[in-house]
Amino acid sequence: MNRTQLVRRAGAALAVAGGLALLGLGLVGTPGCGRAKYKPLPADSTTALSVDSLAVAARDAQSQWDGGDPETAARLTARIVLADLRARAAQTPTLDWGARAAALIDSLNFGAEVQSDPCVMVVNLFSRSDPDRGSWPWLFSCGPRTIDTQAIEGKGLKILAVTGRALGAAIADSSAPPGVAALFGRRAAGGYQPLLMTWKRGRDSHWTLDQTLGPDSLGAFGTGDFDHGDSTVVLTVRSYRPTPRFEECPTCPHVYHEVRLAWLATGFVRLDERMLPSPYATFVRFTTAMSVGDRDMAATLVSETHWVDEASRLQFGAQLGPWRVAPATDENAREMVFLRGKQEAYRVTFAPRSGDWVIDGITPTSTSIE
Fold first, then answer.
1. pTM attached to this predicted model
2. Which pLDDT does position 56 carry in this prediction?
3. For 23, which of 86, 328, 339, 355 could close a Cys bridge (C-beta 3.0–4.6 Å)?
4. Which helix (H) or strand (E) holds 263?
5. In the predicted model, is pLDDT for residue 68 greater than 80?
């Protein structure tokens, strides 16, 4: 399909129920400058574009994605999405922003990650032909009179989840100030590092960055989601950190922790943190206890105490090289093969007990399984 056909298909996809009125585009193919790019589109800036004009707008955006300025391309794309949402939401107040934006962007053959919640959405735009070039997130939210949008911090990150509070009709039912929270992921060698950002709304409806929490608070690598409780929003992050004395690849088993934070009027604060039970986590705790000579702790992690004696005989507490799990092993498998150095391998079996796991077998085996 050539570009002309693509633009025609995009125009046809948007011409629904007698045509589409696109509101407030201001489509000019020039880069934004300074902080002006973060200014929301004025709610009273309204114009109507024909399908032909939309095709021109889509072509301009495509031209920018195809070797032009990606920031300009993202701005043009975001404003096409905004205009479409404003027109459709005026007819269907219960419109699912995320589903509509994802379908629209796909019809234009642009690249985007979309995360949404009632009255708020983040569209993370990128070039489909060159996704490693970066990404540009745009925030969409319920404004005083209509839907607003603006570019936000988070360039080059992956959007994982978004939520809002005291927005739209909910503003009268909230004791907390209006806010938006988004969980991003920063790509690193070990996976995605979670990064939480929140924004507060100024008098001009402009969102400004209010709080940032990174791996020190959330864990080195992981993901999470927001949950709306009875009175507050809770962020739950499932994450892991590198394990001492173990070699772990990004897709290997890990010891995961669950961190929960509550969104209070002053920002997100930690509620609690716990280690998530798994056979792999039990083995890590067991070998750690053996390495520091804590037999009492080790005894709580086995079905029978003679397995502590067996592990002692096999020198599980000695520094004889890093541990690693056999390839393609699931962290919740009841049987795992652990390797240490170049010559040692052990088949370890696990049994559930009181919501956790204990070791109920340790057998030397061949390293050829690797």
1. 0.82
2. 83
3. 86
4. strand 256-264
5. yes
d(C-alpha 196, C-alpha 341), whole Å: 38
Mean of pLDDT over the chain: 85
pLDDT digits (tens, 9 = 90+) for 335-367: 999 999 888 999 999 999 999 999 999 999 988
**What distances in angstroms separate CA 73 from CA 40, 41, 80, 99, 229, one per listed residue?**
17, 16, 11, 21, 38
**Token pair for 281:** 């986590």
Query: Residue 347: beta bridge partners?
Result: 337, 363
Q: CA 330 to CA 332: how far, in whole Å?
A: 5
**Six token digits for residue 122:** 């983040």
Say how many CA atoms lie within 13 Å of 218 toward its Cβ: 26
191-201/179-188 β-pairing = antiparallel
Which residues lie closer than 8 Å to 120 by C-beta, 6 or more apart? 139, 140, 141, 142, 162, 163, 164, 167, 180
3-state class of 155 per DSSP? coil
* pLDDT in the model for residue 209: 97
Between CA 168 and CA 120 the distance in angstroms is 9
Distance between CA 56 and CA 49 in Å, rounded?
A: 10
